Amino acid sequence: YAPLYAFNGAAIMVNSKDGFQTLSSLEGLSTSEVKQRTRTVMEQMRGKKIGITEGTIAEKVVLDALSTAGMSKADVQLFNARYEDNLAAFLAGRIDAFVGGVTERVKARQGGAVELLIGSAVSDPGIVGWVTTKTFADKHPATMKSLTDNFFKIARHMTEDPKGRATLATSYLKGKASVDYTPEEYAYALAFQYFPRTREDAVRTFLRSDSPYYWKGIWDRSNAFLLK
Fold first, then answer.
1. Given 7, 69, 93, 199, which is the most exposed site by the fewest CB atoms within 10 A?
2. Residue 228 burial (CB < 10 Å; 0-12/13-18/19+)?
3. Given its phi and psi angles, is residue 141 left (phi above 0), alpha (psi -120 to 50 degrees) or beta?
4. C-alpha span between 163 and 182 (Å, rounded)
């Protein structure tokens, strides 16, 4: 029904004690520079055990990073498991790296991990939105518009001061999520998403072909990955 925000939170996590050279951003670099720096970082993963979740962004990030570096999955050891199981295996030292989302990244960082490579540097973001049936949307246009507008209102409120306004969210998540967030960690995690501030901003973000979050390109590339 409506795209709401872009998720840039996936990252390849490694143990900070292992001394890996890391790469957080490739923004502003030329294509050749992106490939060279990604190769430098990913060469460190040659022969290493990496936890992924097949058919999700956690797998796509690794495959895109390997492709950008001129490598293939034959150059590493990929282990398929759920996000939370990969996190547990990583913290137990059974794998060298894994791809985590927001929650797993925060939990891994609490255990001494760092981001080897942020997924958004080499791969597409995820687009998160409202999904409903056409029948319901046609029968309840006011409800759907209210849901959408209220989401943008809440996103504006939280992103204006994520640390200062984190208490309600962190209190709710305490005991429910797999990690208890501090206000600082919540603000850190919130920064992994791009939140349009209004319905009009969302149109510019997701429907314009010159936007990095243009839906059609992400749709086509994601489908090609899933079909393959």
1. 93
2. exposed
3. alpha
4. 9
Residue (of 70, 120, 78, 69) closest to 97 by Cα position: 78
- Collapse the DSSP code of 143 into the 3-class scheme (helix H, G, I; strand E, B; otherwise coil) and give the result: helix
* Cα 192 from Cα 8, distance rounded (Å): 5
- Cβ of 159: how many Cβ atoms within 10 Å? 16
- Name the band, by pLDDT with cuts 50, 70 and 90, for residue 220: very high
Integer Cα distance of 164 and 79 in angstroms? 39
pTM of the entire structure?
0.84
Closest CA to 26 of 8, 44, 14: 8
pLDDT in tens, 158-181: 999 999 999 888 888 887 777 788
Q: Alpha helix locations (H) across 44-93?
A: 57-68, 83-91
Task: Please choose, from the candidates 103, 22, 105, the residue with its C-alpha nearest in 3D space to the C-alpha of residue 65.
Answer: 22
